[in-house]
Specification:
The protein is of the alpha/beta class. It has 8 helices and 7 strands, in the order E-H-E-H-E-H-E-H-E-H-E-H-H-E-H. It has one domain: Spore Coat Polysaccharide Biosynthesis Protein SpsA, Chain A, CATH 3.90.550.10. The structure holds guanosine-5'-diphosphate (GDP) and magnesium ion. Magnesium ion binds next to loops.
């Protein structure tokens, strides 16, 4: 179990208001004013407006949004028009962008997503509720509901990554490469992150193997708006390598 404690006195999920955890009936719980939603953005003009509108609507404009952007299209302008904080960074891959994005905010809860309209921002309240229930990491599990919108090759790959990681860790996980997770900020700050394409798997494996309270949470997954930035073969090999490397590193004394 983690040494990290809930905000004050360990409020359980059942006490949360099911109509919206940001109603702040109990000041000891995190609300969306304590949440930063962060993402790497690379030529996502087709999706970013919808993604940021969804976050604004679901969180009543209370969550901060941070985009680490390497785009050559209108993505950063659209992000700024929506009130997001934009950090410019030359494109160097998924993990380089997301590492900067998770370390930039100073709010106590950090939520990652992709900027491609695949992830259900309407489930953000469930993620916050799970953090308020005491979990350190809440990981969106796309495969639980079947992930029909995912290309079949990627779906097979993701099942195999989960089996590989589970075998190496000795603990069953179901979706190691999901882009949607919530973290207590202490978790992301207390670990040194080394992976690029494999960062998403690393962000699940290292906390889990260090004894943090990590929970997978089923999520819906939609078809992507715009083009993927990840080559399935090259990216898949990089992810498999990261899973093996990170799991073995965490096993070493
Ligand atoms: N800033 C930045 N963002 C990136 C880079 N590569 C990918 N991204 C973003 O990271 C997220 C995940 O990439 P995506 O193409 O959705 O990967 P997929 O979900 O595996 O298809 C998206 O929001 C991309 O725009 C990069 O080199 N720089
Ligand atoms: Mg994506």
């Amino acid at each position: 179990m983690s040494s990290i404690q809930p905000p004050t006195n360990g409020i359980e999920a059942e006490t949360a208001d099911s109509t919206g955890v940001d109603s702040a009936s109990d000041a000891s719980e995190y609300t969306f004013e304590d949440v930063s939603v962060v993402m790497g953005t690379y030529n996502e003009a087709a999706a970013i407006g919808t993604v940021l509108d969804d976050i604004e609507a679901i969180t009543d404009g209370k969550a901060e949004v941070v985009c680490v952007d390497g785009s050559s299209d209108r993505t950063p302008e659209i992000a700024r028009e929506h009130g997001a904080r934009v950090i410019e960074q030359a494109p160097q891959g998924y993990g380089v962008a997301v590492r900067e994005a998770i370390l930039a905010p100073d709010r106590p809860v950090v939520v990652t997503t992709d900027c491609d309209d695949t992830y259900p921002m309407e489930q953000l309240p469930e993620f916050l509720e799970a953090i308020n229930a005491g979990h350190d990491v809440v990981s969106g599990d796309r495969l639980y509901h079947g992930a029909e919108a995912m290309p079949a090759f990627n779906r097979l790959g993701n099942h195999l990554f989960a089996l590989l990681a589970s075998a190496l860790m000795g603990e069953r996980v179901h979706d190691t490469t999901t882009g949607m997770r919530a973290y207590r900020r202490e978790v992301v700050e207390s670990i040194e992150w080394t992976e690029n394409t494999g960062l998403s798997a690393e962000l699940l494996i290292r906390p889990l193997m260090r004894g943090y309270d990590v929970r997978e949470h089923p999520i819906a997954y939609r078809e992507r708006a715009g083009e993927t930035k990840l080559d399935p073969i090259e990216g898949g090999l990089a992810i498999a390598k990261s899973i093996v490397k990170v799991s073995l590193e965490e096993r070493l004394p």
